Amino acid sequence: MERINIRRIEVFQEGENVFTSNGISRVKVTKDGEIIAIEIPIKSTGISEIVDRFNKKAPQPPLMDVLVEPEDKLGRELNLTKKKWIKMPNFGDPDYIKAKEKHETDLGMKILMTGLAVELRDKEGNTVEDEEKKLEIMKSMGMTGDQFSKIVDDITSLTRWREEEQVQLLE
C-alpha cells in the first residue's frame, strides 16, 4: 500500500479547498472478450451535503400495533409485567420497501451526477448541465448496476477511511 502523506493544517483560509478530494474510479468493461478498465475522474465536492439532504427526506416505515408479552424478548427489554399493545415500525411493508429502494437509487444517482469530474456531452457535442439528461445519457451508454455501484462507492470512499489506511496512520 502506498504511504499516506500527513499534512498538518495550522490555519484555515477562506477560499482554500482543503477538504476537496478527487481521484479515479476504475470500471470493468469487456469488449470482444478483452477486459478493459475505464478510468473515470471523480470528486467528493458536495457529496456530504447531498447525503444529509437525502437522509432528512428518507421514507419512514408505517407503524403497526403489536401485542407484546412480558416473557417475549421485547417484553423483557421494556420491563413489562403484563401484555401491552405497542406501535412498532413495519419494515416489511411493501410500499415502504419500494419507497426506500427508490430513495436509495435517487441518492446514488445524485451522488453519481455530482461526483463525476468529467464533462458530459450530447450527440451534437454540446455540454450537458441538466442532471436528468446526464442520467439519460449515462444509461444509454450501457452503464450496468455493478458499474453504477462501483463509481458511487468510489466517490463516497474519497473521504472515508478504509481500515487498512487507519492502521497505517497508527504505525
Could you give a short description of this structure?
By secondary structure, the chain is an alpha+beta fold. The protein contains six helices and four strands; from the N terminus they run ββαβαβαααα.
Name a few traits of the molecule.
rbstp2171; 19% strand; alpha+beta; single chain; extended; 171 residues; 40% helix; two-stranded antiparallel sheet
Account of the 3D structure:
The protein is α+β, with helices and mostly antiparallel strands and 171 residues long. It has a domain at 22-60 and 92-170: rbstp2171, CATH 3.30.2220. The protein is 40% helix and 19% strand. The chain has 6 helices and 4 strands. It has a two-stranded antiparallel sheet with strand order 1-2. β1 (22-31) and β2 form a beta hairpin. The longest helix is centred in the middle third of the chain and has 22 residues, at 94-115. The model has no long low-confidence stretch (mean pLDDT 88).
**CATH level-3 fold name of the domain at 22-60 and 92-170:** rbstp2171
CATH class of the domain at 22-60 and 92-170: Alpha Beta
What is the number of strand segments? 4
Strand content: 15-25%
Output the helix-strand order: EEHEHEHHHH
For the report, how would you describe the main beta sheet?
2 strands, antiparallel
Question: Which value, in Å, is the CA radius of gyration?
Answer: 23 Å
Helix content: 25-40%
Distance between the termini: 13 Å
Categorize the overall geometry. extended
Strand order of the largest sheet: 1-2
**What structural category arises from helix and sheet content?**
alpha+beta
